[in-house]
Amino acid sequence: MGELLRAFGAMIPLTITAIPYALLGWPLLAAHRRRRRQTDRFCASATAAVDMTLALGCFLVLCLVTMPVSGAHGSRLSLEPGTDLRLVLSDSANLWQALGNVLMLCPLGALLPVRSRRLRSLFRIALGALAVSVLVEGTQYLIQAGRVTSIDDILLNTLGAVAGAAVSRRLWHRLDVRPPVKIPVQVRRVCDAPVRLRVPRSVWDERYSSIAHPQRR
Prior knowledge:
The protein is built from nine helices and two strands; from the N terminus they run αααβααααβαα. The protein is mainly alpha-helical.
C-alpha cells in the first residue's frame, strides 16, 4: 500500500481540487447551451455533465502521465505480456495498480459513445482505447516519469474502456438531439391555362345577363 500511495498519492489532492471546478462549470455550460442551441433543460444539463466528466477524466489522465514518481530514477519498459498480471496474485499493491489501469479509461469508454455517434461500436471503442493507451504509455516512458511502461497496462486500459462501453450501451441514444421537424411550405398554384366555357359567350350574355343583372333588363 505504501508503494501504491507513493506512485498515485499525489493524484488524491489534485482530484479533490479539480472536482469543484468541474461542478462549477457544469451549470454554466448547461445554461450556455440552453441559450445558444434552444434545447430543453434536461438535454442541456445531461450533455454538459457528460462533457465536463470527460474533460475532468482527460485532465486527470494527463496529470497522471506527466507527474513524476518520487524516489524513482527513470522509467522501465516491460514488453512481455502477462508479466504484471502474474504479480497481481502475489502482491496486493499490484492488484490495486491493475484495478487502477482497468478504471483509468473506463469513463472515456462509457461516455464517449454517448456524445459521438461514430464511436458507437465496441470494436471502435477498443481501437480508440488501444491508441490512447499506447500514447499514454509511450509518453510516460519518453519523459522518464519513473513509471513502468508495460504491455499489460495497455491491455488492461483497453479492457476497461470496452467494459465501460458495454455497461453504458443502453444509454448511447438517450441524449441524441432530434432535428426539428420541417413543415413544408404551402404553395398555391394558379392554373395558367385559359378557362374555356362550353356555352358561347354570346349565348351566355343573352340568357344569364338578365338574371345576374336585373337592372340591365
